[in-house]
What we know:
The complex is a heterodimer of chains A (359) and B (82). Chain A has 359 residues and is of the alpha/beta class. In chain A, 41% of the residues lie in helices and 19% in strands.
Amino acid sequence: MSEDKRLLLKGNEAAVHGAILAGCECFFGYPITPASEIAHAAAEIFPKLGRVFLQAESELAAINMVFGASATGRRVITASSGLGISLKQEGISYIATCELPAVIIDIMRGGPGLGNIGPEQSDYNQVVKGGGHGSYKCIVLAPNSAQEMCDLTMLAFDLADAYRIPAYVLTDGVIGQMMESVTLATPRPRKPVPEWALAGNSETRRNVVTSIYLAHDDLEQVNVNLQNKYAEIERNEQRFETYKTDDAELVLVGYGIISRLIRTAVDALREKGVKAGMLRPITLFPFPKDALRSLAAQNVTFLCVEMSNGQMIDDVRLAIECSRPVNLYNRMGGNVPGVEEIVNEGIKVASRNPQERLT
Amino acid sequence: MAEKHSKKFDVEITVDECKGCGRCVAACPKGVLRMTNKVNMMGIVYVEAANEGCVGCGACFYTCPEPGAITIYELDGGENGE
Lengths: 359, 82
């Protein structure tokens, strides 16, 4: 790659470039709107670079191919949208239990059920809370631009490898399908195959990748180890962005496309005399609890803006242990709230007196 | 610039790929596209290219969330187009 290479890309395409730059060797997937451009771009780029692109017969097949490729120590990626992620959950639980790294991109669309192809954020619970069976979690990164689709996909590979954990890139249909200018980073040097990987030869014969532990105590120990790892991730990897929070009395919280609307809304609210600020979680697991707690200590009121029935708001409330009022403004069904709607809601929330706000 | 205007384009909707979201109708600067009252194989009301005047800008193509639903052809045949 030449230096300062800028391209006009859809968020979905940028994620594929990020995967390539991170040294990803395999893509296994099954197309679904609004994540199809990821498969399209991967189909175009991966084979040219001698890497594997395979359209599986189903989402279930795709995630199990990811499982297999990851067990051989290769960087591997898959992508889908809400209903496809639901299908992949079984495999993701296996990958998480086997402590294998993998990157999964979820471009959220309208749900539940077959839903529609509009943008939504309703996969939050099924992605951030684990989603499949068992007590596991995955790292979740939430980009809000095509540039971040590229950068955070690269970061997802690094974090997945560092902690041997599946890492999600979670965003909505708007970010996935919106075209923006993207500056490509320097490609990562090729990684050696890790020592735990399986190669089907005598040297790796003693490596075991499994998620079945029939002795209860053994399985409990696996669970304890996983929880310790998640605690370590929560200590080290909380990422977030703040905007005008220093003197804020009302803090709007949102991720993905919502964070870009909120940023505009914060400026508009300040023009109308409301001391507003923004907190955007960049990692959804680990959730930026420390940042929220320090904001709560400033006695702010929170307003969560979501394109779901209010899923992230639970984590905001838990992070601050309900010590401050947390309000919700949400749209669903593929609708994106307008800046004006958010501003009006912000004024409404800010105009309540503090006692009222706490109830 | 006259040369540029002489180019002719044609926009084609692959009816069964269309999910009827209407983004292309909103995006088209020349009002070429419109929503029909007919349904496709999936039972979804779809968009059709109702009028002449496609300038090949690609706005509909880029805004369409369904890869493969919209194809834009640049027509051969000089000024008359075919």
